Write a sequence for this structure.
């Protein structure tokens, strides 16, 4: 991180509302968050429990998922599967210049024996090639470590991304299978 980025991040942190503690952290007031999102070319990350998503956040992330998974990949399927607003599920959002450019969903079942599942991993096509996928997965893995440190993490990866996910400690646990016309394989980090 450069000194300019550190200074910019410090300015961003000053926009936090310090009177709203949550588990040792802070909620960012919606008006300040919107100002921060719109005025920053730096990537701003959010790790949100589904109950913390605003209506606008939910609409924006669903629109991005539809744009990439349904339209761009020419794969008509029901993306809104009922899992977005359940239990302890979380959403990782990366904003740049007021636009959602990176997203991942983390699902946690009610069973303590089931793995945490990272899915719907997306980088907007306008910023692909900038290595944001690595940052997104680092954010998602940090969230899993923070909330479920002893739990295996699983994902259904597009087969051509096996080496990318291996960088984060994932190895195949299934053979290649077809999911909506796209080759996938199950991968886990333990």
């Amino acid at each position: 991180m450069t000194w300019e980025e550190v200074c910019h991040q410090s300015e961003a942190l000053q926009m936090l509302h310090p009177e709203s503690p949550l588990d040792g952290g802070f909620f960012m007031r919606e008006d300040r968050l919107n100002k921060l999102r719109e005025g920053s070319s730096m990537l701003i990350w959010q790790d949100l429990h589904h109950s913390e998503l605003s209506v606008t956040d939910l609409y924006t992330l669903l629109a991005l998922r539809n744009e990439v998974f349904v339209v761009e990949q020419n794969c008509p399927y029901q993306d809104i599967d009922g899992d977005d607003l359940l239990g302890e599920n979380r959403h990782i959002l990366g904003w740049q210049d007021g636009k959602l450019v990176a997203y991942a969903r983390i699902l946690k079942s009610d069973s303590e024996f089931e793995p945490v599942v990272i899915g719907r991993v997306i980088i907007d096509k306008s910023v692909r090639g900038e290595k944001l996928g690595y940052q997104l997965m680092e954010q998602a893995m940090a969230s899993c470590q923070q909330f479920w440190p002893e739990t295996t993490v699983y994902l259904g990866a597009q087969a051509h991304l096996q080496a990318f996910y291996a960088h984060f400690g994932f190895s195949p646990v299934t053979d290649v299978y077809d999911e909506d016309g796209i080759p996938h394989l199950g991968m886990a980090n333990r």
